[in-house]
Design goal:
The protein is 66% helix and 2% strand. Helix 5 packs across helix 7. This is GntR family transcriptional regulator.
Length: 229
Amino acid sequence: MTACAQASVHLPALLGAGETRLSAEQIYPRLFDAILEQRLPPGSALPEQALGNAFGVSRTVIRRVLGRLSDQQVVVQRPSHTAHLAAPDPQQARQVLSARRLAETTLIGLATQRARPAQIRQLRQLVERERQHHEQGARCTAIRLGGEFHMKLAQMAANAPLARFLNGLVPMTSLIIARYESRCCDHCAWQEHAAIIDAVEQGDGETALALMHQHLDRLEAKLDLDQPV
């Protein structure tokens, strides 16, 4: 389990709860970001009443948020059971990583063809923030920004169904890393992201594809999917 996960910390504190009467649309990104930043360990319980009390909303509102995350297969919901974060087993992890590679390698080709200058600028700004947080030692935030990089890159491909598909795979990947990472990455993901942007901006689909494969190879290399869980 990564250092970002803090199972002993009170759930509302991890989610930055405190404001009340938030809408489902406002609560959802807080939970989503907590998952991307690995602040919630895989398998964490997400009790509706506790979350409702923390955000000052009804269980119905919380149920709507959890349902949206369940549609992305990030949260597991069963009748008469407390919802909890997914905790992918090794087989599920391999399937997610395989699906993500298929999606990413298709999307990078489309993004290379369709990216607009304004989108490239926004993506560079995001990677600059990722670099700053990495160098400041804010690993959890850097991880989230790295995930956002891939989701924004998917938007540049202008294929909404594929982008939605990837948006579910990115937080699942974060849970997989939190559960199976065997060593901290010895490279800077932001540098790889910057190189991918360069290739996309130049319209070099072949280089962009090769860089994406290398990036995903390094991500998978730090996982030990044979370890007991």
